[in-house]
Design a protein that fits this description.
Length: 495
């Protein structure tokens, strides 16, 4: 992750006298920002003249670089558009910052300064969002390349604000930890299946604990899981030569007695098992452990911040492979809870490992359980690639997560899990429950209903991130979602 380390700095310098290689200032479609007005005065009205001439429109992501500008100390001035002022939200802020950062990294600039917060309503949320966008634009994954990416010229990223206070300093530190946690998540998600598999995923968790003494990790092996009766999880793992692991993380820094539990799906590669997936894009099934990666990335951010809370992480880590030993469609598995499950489709494996992990998490008697999983293709049909699915047995918990999703620009949409409508769709003639429902309808909902059976009366939420955890196509790679949501959510549990 060395290429992804970013030296962020918060500065209160005056705009015109601030020394930097690139000074980034925002322009809205209707008018100049206060920062732009200050510079415009120092530049004898040059910015206003450029706007009147149509050289910069203010449209989201539009750029106009200016060189050797008289009246300011910055070597270059980069004007970036943020759209209509009344629509200046976190999404448009990040689009503008991303465009500006991509331009800067194509130069030999060693420093860049963003002076963008003036028009932001909530600077405490805008500042981390700005830093997140910079971090994502600068992120590189080259672990498996013979030639590593050259060291970038850019050394320092300044965020300029005319005055700071404790709240802004806290937001700045929060942003640094968020970027670090997201980069960690991306590194895990982007690694191929022969680099990250259950054993090495457990090793990465253990290294995280070595780096942060506030985190403790224990790893349960197959024999220990057999003693606990985790027949559902082990049923998924039995087709692979890679032994399964249950990774358990604990963080308690003066937090409440009862923890919040995060449970992340860790299928390090998903072939579908005997219900084999089509060959097209099967390589992307290395991303089927992005739920697990998001838990580890969130733990990293929490530890860096030294948050005063109690969190437990449970990660069931397996490969889902076809072999002579693999679980067959129609096989019946016995979960840790004692519930028997008819495995009608071996490619519906995520819920089979999560149910045992959820049962394990209930032993902590947590205040809440949130599981994160790339669980169903059906959620992509419903919501596309920008919004994660939310399911919950507790209205207060669901509302809290939706509030955090909005503040972090990590959006979710809640679906119903009405017992009298959907639970009957999981009935089986041969076991207590089937792992899928018949037909194609309500696939994401019935998957959530399946998981709900294993959390008892504990407030629980399920995030289906199958459409949001990674991007496809030319920009293929892990997104580190929903780390922004999870970190914001955990703030509410600080002592």
């Amino acid at each position: 992750m060395s290429n992804n380390q970013i030296n962020f700095a918060l500065s209160t310098d005056a705009l015109a006298t601030h020394e930097t290689d690139v000074l980034v200032v925002g322009i809205c479609e209707e008018a100049l920002s206060n920062e732009a007005k200050i510079l415009d005065k120092a530049m004898s009205g040059q910015i206003e003249a450029l706007k009147d001439a149509g050289d910069i429109t203010g449209k989201v992501g539009s750029l106009l670089p200016l060189f050797n500008v008289e009246g300011i100390k910055a070597k270059r001035l980069l004007l970036v558009g943020f759209g209509k002022e009344e629509k200046l939200n976190l999404k448009n802020l990040k689009k503008g910052v991303t465009a500006a950062t991509n331009w800067v990294k194509g130069t030999k600039a060693e420093s860049v300064t963003f002076a963008l917060l003036d028009r932001c309503v909530e600077k405490e949320t805008s500042l981390p969002a700005l830093m997140q966008a910079v971090g994502s634009a600068l992120y590189i994954y080259d672990e498996c390349k013979s030639e590593k990416a050259p060291a970038r010229a850019l050394k320092t990223v300044h965020i300029l604000e005319k005055e700071t206070n404790d709240r802004l300093e806290n937001a700045f530190n929060y942003g640094k930890a968020l970027v670090s946690g997201m980069n960690f998540t991306k590194d895990l998600g982007n690694a191929p299946g022969n680099v990250i598999y259950p054993t090495t995923l457990a090793e990465r968790a253990q290294k995280l604990a070595e780096e942060f003494p506030s985190i403790t990790v224990k790893v349960l092996d197959q024999a220990e899981m057999e003693k606990l009766g985790m027949g559902s999880l082990l049923g998924v793992a039995q087709g692979s030569d890679e032994p399964p692991k249950l990774i358990v993380l604990e963080y308690n820094n003066e937090g409440k007695e009862k923890p919040v539990a995060l449970v992340g799906k860790g299928v390090t590669f998903d072939s579908g098992g005997i219900s084999l997936k089509p060959g097209a894009a099967m390589d992307e099934m290395k991303f089927d452990m992005c739920g697990a990666a998001s838990v580890l990335g969130t733990f990293r951010a929490v530890a860096e911040l030294g948050m005063k809370l109690n969190v437990v992480g449970v990660i069931p880590a397996v490969e889902n492979m076809p072999s002579g030993k693999a679980c067959k469609p129609g096989d019946v598995l016995t979960s840790m809870s004692g519930i028997t499950i008819e495995n009608l489709n071996t490619d519906a494996e995520g819920r089979l490992i999560l149910c045992d992990a959820l049962t394990y998490a209930t032993q902590y008697e947590p205040e809440a359980i949130v599981d994160i999983a790339t669980l169903t293709g059906a959620i992509i049909v419903a919501l596309g690639y920008d919004v994660s699915g939310l399911f919950s047995n507790n209205d207060a918990l669901a509302e809290s997560l939706k509030e955090s999703a909005f503040k972090a620009d990590d959006q979710v949409w809640q679906f119903p899990i009405w017992e009298d409508t959907f639970q009957d769709m999981l009935e089986s003639n041969f076991a207590d429950i089937a792992n899928i429902s018949p037909g194609r309808g309500a696939g994401s909902i019935t998957a959530a209903c399946f998981l709900e059976r294993f959390v008892k009366e504990i407030p629980w939420a399920h995030l289906d991130v199958a459409g949001t955890a990674w991007t496809t196509g030319k920009e293929k790679g892990a997104s580190a979602r929903p780390v922004p949501l999870l970190l914001n959510f955990l703030k509410k549990y600080e002592a």
